[in-house]
Structure formats: C-alpha cells, structure tokens
Amino acid sequence: MTEPFISCHRFQNMIRSFHCIEGFEIPCLSPEQQSQFVRDPVNFFLKCEDQTAEFIFSIIKSRQHI
Considering the domain boundaries, does residue 10 fall inside one? Predict the structure, then answer.
C-alpha cells in the first residue's frame, strides 16, 4: 500500500484551521464576503476565486506546526 500524500491527522488540522481564521485576516474580501467566509469557511473556500483561495491556503499553511 502506498503512503498517502498527506496524513489524516494533518488534513484534519488543516480543516480545523479554516474555522480559526477571522474575516479581517483576509483583507481582499469585502465585509459581506468576510461574513460569508466566517459563516461557512470551507464552502466559501471551495467556491471563491483562485487568487483568494491561494491567500486563504497560505494562512492555513502558516498555522500548521506538525
């Protein structure tokens, strides 16, 4: 069996990180978009533009200490 490209534990931590990001940490979003992100961060991430997703992902990666 091959090794997964990312461990389950690390993946869980990355998903949890979405819920720790405050809207104001994403200054490229309007106040309404920030509220949408806070209400449903994972769904917002999946639907947002690539540049915004890259910015959010950079926040998540910076919080991983595994």
Answer: no
Q: Which pLDDT tens digit goes with each residue over 29-58?
A: 999 999 999 999 999 999 999 999 999 999
Whether the CB-CB separation of 52 and 44 falls below 8 Å is answered with no
7-33: pLDDT as tens digits: 888 899 999 999 999 999 999 999 999
Domain with 43 in it: 27-66
Tally of domains in the chain: 1
Q: How far apart are CA 34 and CA 11, in angstroms?
A: 24
